[in-house]
Specification:
This protein has 368 residues and is of the alpha+beta class. It is built from six helices and 24 strands.
Length: 368
């Protein structure tokens, strides 16, 4: 086998698929990237059996074939010799030895038998939803930060997706906060549901662009497949039923306020500086008819910010983990947001006159 390929294209492909390499002590083949050359295309594939990423690039395939190469060593070497406009030669010099060479570099890397690599699961392609690439990227960004990070409830380590009619909904919660986002679908579907691991979604988000290209997301046999331009991501879904979340978010509120999102975010970031070294990143909100006072206290002192708001209902005094509030504000793209306070000071954050995102946050403690 012999291939000539652009060094930057190869480096980009190796970087992308390497995200699916196993990080645990596993069989040696799962530490490898499978490389296949055929018809002037070079296809790189890596998997840890839960997540798989495939990338296809153009190449001058002189002699076709396939091999397994240790992913991290190969990736590190390619990254160091990649240079704008330069080519790299990949050539099998014997049954288990790959020669990687450029104009000024040369390296021999041992390879493994491609026959030992896991088979790729097949998906028929009949069960899917279609969505703009930028909308898929945004819906992931809008909720993924609320996924649980501990193993006590495995299903909460993923994001629950539900496609129905022309709407895709995504839900995530860690038990202290709840996030939901909605985006429009390009085609009507009856109903498709799946809980997708947060790690897989994080890697998918990095592969997505802000393009308005229409992507098809295939879900069947407990697997998900997303096909992008030149790239495929394949992941195993979380098995089991997601929590029933319909009654988590309050429907009755004692107070509602409207505030400029940018102003609130800046004030919150400034006021919370003092509590960032504390366990709960605690900020206190004192809210009256036209004013919100945001403060934090630690062993180092007190910080306080005042901003103008519009409140209807009762005055509010409450405390939250500032990180939970900040995580929401970072991804909200709107001028004016709405905060609604229910009994016991639980808070719902939405965009004024929009149902695109909804965040529900529990207070850290009740303040008398």
């Amino acid at each position: 086998m012999k291939i000539i390929v652009n060094s930057l294209d190869l480096n980009d492909a190796v970087t992308k698929v390497s995200k699916a390499l196993s990080v645990k002590d596993v069989a040696p083949v799962l530490e490898c990237i499978k490389i296949t050359a055929d018809n002037d295309k070079l296809t790189l594939y890596a998997t840890d059996k839960d997540l798989a990423i495939e990338r296809t690039i153009d190449a001058n395939v002189i002699v076709g074939g396939a091999f397994l190469v240790p992913g991290r060593i190969f990736g590190d070497y390619i990254r160091n010799i990649a240079d704008k406009g330069s080519d790299i030669s990949l050539e099998m010099v014997d049954e288990n030895r790959l020669l990687v060479s450029s104009q000024s570099s040369e390296c021999n890397i041992g390879t493994l038998d491609v026959e030992d690599y896991p088979e790729i699961e097949s998906i028929s392609g009949s069960n899917y939803f279609a969505i703009q690439e930028t909308n898929l990227r945004e819906i992931i960004s809008n909720v993924i930060f609320s996924v649980a990070t501990d193993d006590s409830r495995p299903m909460l380590r993923g994001v629950y997706f539900e496609a129905k009619d022309y709407t895709l909904s995504a839900v995530a919660t860690d038990g202290y906060r709840f996030a939901m986002s909605k985006k429009v679908l390009e085609e009507r579907v009856d109903e498709i549901t799946a809980t997708i691991p947060s790690r897989s979604l994080s890697e998918l988000s990095k592969l997505l662009s802000d393009s308005d290209n229409i992507l098809k997301v295939y879900i069947e046999n407990n697997y998900l497949l997303v096909c992008m331009e030149g790239t495929k991501l394949f992941t195993r879904l979380l098995a089991g039923s997601y929590i029933k979340y319909d009654n988590i978010v309050p429907r009755e509120f004692l107070s509602t306020l409207l505030v400029n999102k940018e102003t609130f975010e800046r004030a919150l970031n400034t006021a919370s500086i003092m509590s960032r070294s504390e366990k709960n990143n605690l900020v206190v909100l004192d809210i009256e008819e036209y004013n919100m006072n945001i403060s934090s206290t630690s062993q180092y002192g007190t910080a306080r910010e005042n901003i103008t708001i519009s409140l209807s209902g009762k005055d509010v005094r409450c405390a939250y983990n500032s990180k939970y509030l900040n995580d929401c504000l970072k991804v909200i793209n709107a001028e004016t947001i709405k905060l609604e306070f229910a009994q016991h000071n639980s808070c719902v954050i939405t965009i004024k006159d929009s149902d695109e995102v909804l965040y529900f946050i529990l207070p850290v403690k009740q303040i008398v």
